[in-house]
Amino acid sequence: xxxxxxxxxxxxxxxxxxxxxxxxxxxxxxxxxxxxxxxxxxxxxxxxxxxxxxxxxxxxxxxxxxxxxxxxxxxxxxxxxxxxxxxxxxxxxxxxxxxxxxxxxxxxxxxxxxxxxx
Length: 118
Hints:
Radius of gyration: 21 Å
Order of helices and strands: HHEHEEHE
Helix content: 25-40%
């Protein structure tokens, strides 16, 4: 919902809307932070349909490397003489397309923080 700043009771309105539509986002452009919640929500929705994978791309395959950067969100990269290893978040559809074109991927697992004792 946009322009909530124009309402007589924006807090009451927001409370009622969230009761009816729990996923609703309130927005206003009258404050500098008025779109922050909307941007965060859209980013979360985009990421929900984009698995994180480890992609290994031969150094000679610049086209695939460019496509991964164009369509995905590269989280990290490690280069060797033979290949580029990227941790990348790609939309399902793009991931499937790149795999059909020969991209080798494996599931990415978040590293666990080690617990210190002592």
